[in-house]
Amino acid sequence: MRCVLVINPAAGGGLSAKVVGELVGHLRGVCDVKTVLAADARGTADAAKRAVADGADVLAVVGGDGVAHLAVQACAESATALALIPAGTGNDLARGLGVPRDPVAAARAVAEALRTGERRRIDLGKVAGGGWFATVLCAGFDSRVNARANRMRWPRGQRRYDLAVVRELLGLRPMPLRVETDAGTTELIATLVAVGNTACYGGGIPVCPDADARDGLLDLTVVGEVARRDLVRILPSLRTGRHVEHPAVLTLRAQRVRLGGENGWMAYADGEPQARLPLSMRCVPGALTVVGS
Predict the structure, then answer these.
(1) Are residues 166 and 210 located together in one domain of the fold?
(2) Could you please report the per-residue DSSP string of 156-189?
(3) Per-residue confidence band for 155, with pLDDT thresholds at 50, 70 and 90
(4) How many CB atoms within 10 Å of residue 227?
(5) What's the rounded Cα separation, in Å, for the pair 129 and 105?
(6) What is the mean pLDDT of residues 45-65?
(7) CB atoms within 10 A of CB 101
(8) How many folded domains does the chain comprise?
């Protein structure tokens, strides 16, 4: 079995570089490992594409959701299975797949899954004219928070998202949104919209709490027009998934989705910028093979 291990040495504040020796040791016990150090996003994307083009059985990546997103672009609808070893800030895809948060524990789990042949297929979202996403595509208030958090260098971890939320609340402006799904069209004034293949974004926030990456559908959470004080009341319930019980929150489920409206919102998917609305997307069942049960 051939495995290409792509490592971003800077991920997690240098965490991946500190444990690389142990990671390689776990994987070499079960497969032929080629290790590639990728210093930036372009290097990671190129290494991932090359691994798939060369017919690697497994592409293992060490890093955060940005690295995972690049790996998904390469592995989608291919014969190469993806193995995630989290070492970033959010790690939402790893969380959605049940991967241990500790990179060494994750490497052990990956090695054991390779030893026993445990693999599964999950769905992916596909943006029309664009790329794939494995977790959540969002627009509106939450995408502004995402953009701000990406620009920040302090603090690390979940506190970065929390601070970005506070700062973006000051400029809150609900806008017109049009949501088209298989079931029909809904037009409303909205604060944010999230389209989930898995449940979480922003480092573990279950914005689409019932999303299942193996049901062939995308889950939508739309927060309608709310005042700043009301959104402040809703935000804490995002941590538990109970925000969907609020009367201003609409939930939908669909195989195909189109988001539009005169809002100028930029969509983010897997924490990465995509394009401004209008934007269409669909769920592609079983588009990605991942290592693990």
Answers:
(1) yes
(2) -THHHHHHHHHHHHTT---EEEEEEETTEEEEEE
(3) low
(4) 12
(5) 37
(6) 95
(7) 12
(8) 2
Helix (H, G, I), strand (E, B) or coil at 85: strand
pLDDT of residue 12: 58
| Average per-residue pLDDT for the chain | 90
Among 20-29, 30-39, 170-179, 263-272, the range scoring the smallest mean pLDDT is 20-29
Residue with tokens 């014969």: 79
User: Residue 246 is encoded by which pair of tokens?
Assistant: 């609020």
User: Same domain for 137 and 113?
Assistant: no
Query: Do residue 151 and residue 239 come from a single domain?
Result: yes
Q: pLDDT above 70 covers what percent of the chain? A: 92
The range of the structural domain enclosing residue 248 comes to 132-285
The dihedral over CA atoms of 272, 217, 240, 221, expressed in degrees to the nearest 10, equals 70
| Residues 223, 145 share a domain | yes
Q: Count how many residues are written for the chain.
A: 293
For residue 254, list its beta bridge partners: 218
179 & 148 share domain: yes
Is 203 inside a domain boundary? yes
CATH code, 196: 2.60.200.40
In angstroms, what CA-CA distances link 137 with 7, 93, 125, 212, 274? 25, 13, 9, 14, 9
Sign of the dihedral defined by the CA atoms of residues 232, 233, 239, 245, in that order? negative
Confidence of residue 11 (pLDDT cuts 50, 70, 90): low
pLDDT value for 139 = 95
Assess contact for 222 and 192: CB atoms under 8 A: yes
The answer to whether position 292 is within a domain reads no
DSSP 36-76: EE--SHHHHHHHHHHHHHTT-SEEEEEE-HHHHHHHHHHHT
pTM for this prediction: 0.91
Residue 293 lies in a domain: no
From 73, 91, 117, the end of a domain falls on: 117
